[in-house]
Structures are given as C-alpha cells and as structure tokens.
Design brief:
This protein has about 240 residues and is mainly beta. It has a single domain, classed as YmcC-like fold. Helix content is about 5%, strand content about 55%. It is built from two helices and 14 strands; from the N terminus they run ββββββββαβββαβββ. Strands 8-7-6-5-4-3-2-1-14-13-12-11-10-9 form a 14-stranded antiparallel sheet. The protein is globular and about 55 Å long.
C-alpha cells in the first residue's frame, strides 16, 4: 500500500461499449481510523440496481473485512444478494422462495488476499514498475467459489481534459478459474472476459475507467468518472 484511502464521494456513469448510458453511479466512502467503508451504487434506467458495500482496513496493506453485493432487476438475469465476512469465513446468500426470503449460510476458508471491492484500490497502488500481481476473489452465485485475478500492467494511453494532454496506464486483469471448471469453461463459452482498468498515475493515482462484466456471461460495460449536468436558471 503506497497511498491510503480517505473519505470521498464521487459520481460515475455506466455505459455499454457503444457509449449508451445505462446507469448513474455514486461512490460514498468514509474513513474512521484505519478502517474504510465504501458503498458503490448504480441505478439503471430500467430500474435495476447494483450495490456493493465493502469494509476494509488499511494499515500497512489493504485487508478486506467484509463485502456485500446486491444485483437485481431486468439488467441482471440472475439476481444475487451475497455477503461474506473474511475473518470468520461466513458466506450468506439471500434469495426469495415463494415470496419469502430464504437465507443460506456456509463456511469457506478465505485467503488473506481476497479482494472483492478493493482490487481497484490495489491496482492504483501498484505503480508503473510493478510486475504481474495475483489476488483472490470470491465469485458469486448459488455456489460461491474462489477465483484468481491475474493483473498485468500495460502501456500508456493518451487522453485530454479541456484540451490539456494527460496519460493513463492500462492494466489487464485476467480472471482465472481453477480446477476442472477452469478447463471446461472456455469450451462452453463461460470463461470470464478480461477486465481492463485505466489509471492516471501520480500523487495520488486516480482510476479513470473500467471495462468489465458485472456478472458471469454478462455484457462488458464501461464505468467512468463523470461530472454533473447543471440545470440553468435565469439570474
């Protein structure tokens, strides 16, 4: 960890790869002592919602403590409400059965490098000289399982803001599914797509863009920083 996270609030936009806006996003992050609580929410035009709440510590390193992901609505063919606590390894999945809430819990031995909700923070801290990095992630579903994120730094790409030139570094994240599932997935078209992350390096580094699937076999969507559109009134 090179840079600690502070309290922040940011506006995001989610588009498809054709540039059509699908959802409005917001990140709320509060820091108390060495612990951070971050809530990332996307409200889709079709009424769907994607909300992830992450609690992590940041002392000498980022360490995930808990995570909850909720996805529901027309944009998500397989709704999910999964939460887990890293120290205890308790995984809770909430669903509806006949109009009643159904809650299932299970135990998983979660490694110290599990990175749900914080892998973008880790990427921002890698720096241009970092080599390949691997992290764990708990993939959701009726049977949650651990996968590996293999992060590789790429080249620089130019962009501009109000005519002023900048550069960003692109990182490629490959999702590696181990075991027999990892062998079979590419054969049946279920291998996860690569994640692409653009970071403006400097002090501090800033995430500018992410292209990723939000669920298995889902479309690749683009998440970017945005600014408000003001309502003009006569003075």
């Amino acid at each position: 960890m090179r840079y600690t996270e502070g309290s922040a609030r940011g506006l995001l936009v989610l588009r498809n790869l054709d540039g059509v806006i699908l959802a409005s996003g917001e990140l709320k992050q509060v820091t108390r002592g060495g612990q951070v609580t971050a809530r990332l929410t996307f409200h889709f035009k079709d009424g769907s919602i994607n909300e992830e709440t992450t609690v992590y510590s940041q002392r000498s390193e980022f360490r995930l403590l808990s995570n909850r992901l909720v996805q529901r609505g027309p944009s998500f063919p397989h709704p999910i409400d999964m939460s887990f606590d890293v120290p205890t390894g308790t995984v809770t999945i909430r669903s509806e059965d006949g109009g009643k809430e159904k809650v299932e819990t299970q135990h998983l031995d979660l490694p110290a490098d599990v990175s749900n909700g914080i892998f973008l923070n880790i990427i921002k801290n890698l720096g241009p000289t970092a080599g390949a990095t691997k992290l764990s992630m708990l993939a959701g579903g009726s049977k949650p399982r651990l996968v590996t994120l293999a992060i590789s730094p790429g080249g620089e790409e130019a962009f501009s803001v109000a005519g002023y030139a900048h550069k960003a570094r692109r990182y490629v994240v490959k999702v590696e599914v181990g075991g027999i599932a990892g062998v079979v997935a590419p054969l049946i078209g279920k291998a996860p797509s690569d994640i692409h992350v653009w970071v403006m390096e400097g002090v501090p580094p800033t995430m500018l863009r992410v292209e990723s699937q939000l669920y298995l076999n889902g479309p690749i969507w683009r998440i970017e920083l945005t600014s408000p559109a003001w309502q003009h009134h006569e003075r």
